[in-house]
Amino acid sequence: LFGREKKVASLQFTPIQPTMKDDVVLPNGFTYDVIAAYGDVINKKGETFGFNNDFTMYLPINGSNRHGLLWVNHEYSSDVFVTGPKQNGKYTKKQIEKLLEVQGGSVIEIERDNNGVWKMNTDSDYARRITGLTPFELRGPAAGTEAVNGAKTAQGTFANCSGGMTMWDTVLSCEENYESTAADAGLDDTHYGWVVEIDPFDPSFTLRKHTALGRFNHENAAVGTTKDGRLVVYMGDDKKDAGVYKYISKNKYVESRGKGNSQLLEDGTLYVADMSKGRWLALTIDAVREAADGNEELLEKFQTQADVLVNTHEAAMLIGGTPTDRPEDVEISPFDRSIFIAHTNNDLHGNIHGHITRFIEKNDDLGSMEFDFEIFAAGGSQSGFSAPDNLSFDSDSNLWTVTDISSGSQNKHVFEPFGNNGMFVIPTMGDHAGEAYQFASAPVASEMTGPWFTPDETTLFLAVQHPGETTEDANNPTSMWPHRSGDNMPRPAVIGIRGFKY
Ligand code: FEO
Ligand code: CA
Ligand code: CA
Ligand code: CA
User: Fold this and answer.
1) What pLDDT score was predicted for residue 11?
2) Residue 23: CB atoms within 10 Å
3) Which H helix or E strand runs over 99?
4) What are the tens digits of pLDDT across the range 305-324?
5) What share of the chain is helix, strand, coil (3-state, %, to 5)?
6) Where is the region Disordered (predicted)?
7) What is the pLDDT, as a whole number, of residue 6?
8) Which atom of ligand 1 is nearest to the CA of 328?
9) With contact defined as beta carbons under 8 Å apart, do 428 and 379 qualify?
């Protein structure tokens, strides 16, 4: 049945078939523009677009769907294409600088020209880079404590995977697999693994790391409110056997406070999901010490709330949080307030293709302490997708899902039916709920990340990450996407997909 043709009346496209083509393949009637690629100059200062773009977020200028700022995460570097290999097991000072410079994020200004094509404006006053060298402040309960070795500030952000948008138009960018860069650069790793906040429009907004949201391999941050008006942030910890989290602020969101609402991310409670009981468990120092049950080593490690926030995963598992199959992106359905979690896969338990889990909070209240859950859609050759990762809703209640079968495993026969990684549209309501329809196929040895629509849904932004990742010899790359004339290597790039009618 794999690859059967499906026609969906409510979708605006005829699904494509899996392919191994070294291109972004789209249904008939759709095109894409390469907006910014690794190494492109983004502003008058000559700063350049970072490597391995991930999360994207569009911020309209004057409400426009054709002119705005695009925030883009840069997740990691490459020995083959960026720094060159280590020498005697270590990067040189210059390589470390490069390693930090290509990660973090970019603010770029983009606009559609007279032909409707998306272009980057390199004369922009807004465009800037935030990197592994840019100063940040630590905020919240762990800032300045012994748990972070007294630090109130941190050098830079890196390993920026997915993220989220606040209701006050700032970006939450998530530090995911921070360990290797911190080690390679000789930086204190308690300063990384946080959710960081940035205002793309305002360089005077203090760049901050929110310790109240815990320190782990942060995938994303999905923001909503409880029925009584407090802020909620759902988060995945992208590791095998790791928990699903939510944070609830102490105080309520007040629209008129604007960016002052950022303080809501500094005072609140972090919870981990116990799926066996359908309960959210509060990560308090008291709960953790009680669960330590007299174990000297644990009681030594967990003495303050800051210790809990810095060692979140260990604390969460100790109090009964459920280990899950690599929780990646989380989205709150704007239609019924159920929570969609991409559990990408976990070979430790034979979950090769992953699934999308759906939490239903009691009374549909994001502030509830109880929930039910179901497997909403399972990966595999029947459903047509494997390894769901980033998620994004459209206004027809479809869940746009990109996949991340790792490049190293794509030669195994269980992954053969899927071809290159892709993008799938999965209705969450109606007769076709849970069925996946392929919308896009990614270039060779890449994944598509960071789906984000313009408010009118006429453009879908996507970040094409790590094309040609399987390359061993830079002179003989496995992909040359985006195939621009003059390029001699593949380049991660952000694209705008057009062709949507509304
Ligand atoms: Fe960076 Fe979990 O993907
Ligand atoms: Ca991801
Ligand atoms: Ca998302
Ligand atoms: Ca992934």
Assistant:
1) 77
2) 17
3) helix 93-101
4) 999 999 999 999 999 999 99
5) 15, 35, 50
6) 469-488
7) 44
8) 2
9) no
Rounded CA separation 477/491 (Å)? 11
CA of 220 to the centre of ligand 3 (A): 7
Strand partners, 34: 495
Domain 134-238+244-322 class, CATH top level: mainly beta
Start-end of CATH 2.40.10.500 domains in the chain: 134-238+244-322
Please tell me the distance between residue 351's alpha carbon and the centre of ligand 4 in angstroms.
15
Residue type, 195: V
Interval between CA 236 and ligand 2 midpoint (Å): 10
Contact partners, residue 262, CB within 8 Å, separation at least 6: 166, 168, 170, 197, 208
**94 Cα to the center of ligand 3, angstroms:** 34
d(CA 449, CA 55): 6
Ligand 3 is a single-atom ion; what residues have CB below 5 A from it? 329, 391-392
Measure the CA–CA gap between 110 and 403, rounded to whole angstroms.
26
- For the whole model, what pTM was predicted? 0.97
**Residue 85 scores a pLDDT above 70:** yes
Residue written as token pair 């195939």: 483
Residues within a 6 A CB radius of ligand 1: 75, 161, 176, 219, 238, 328
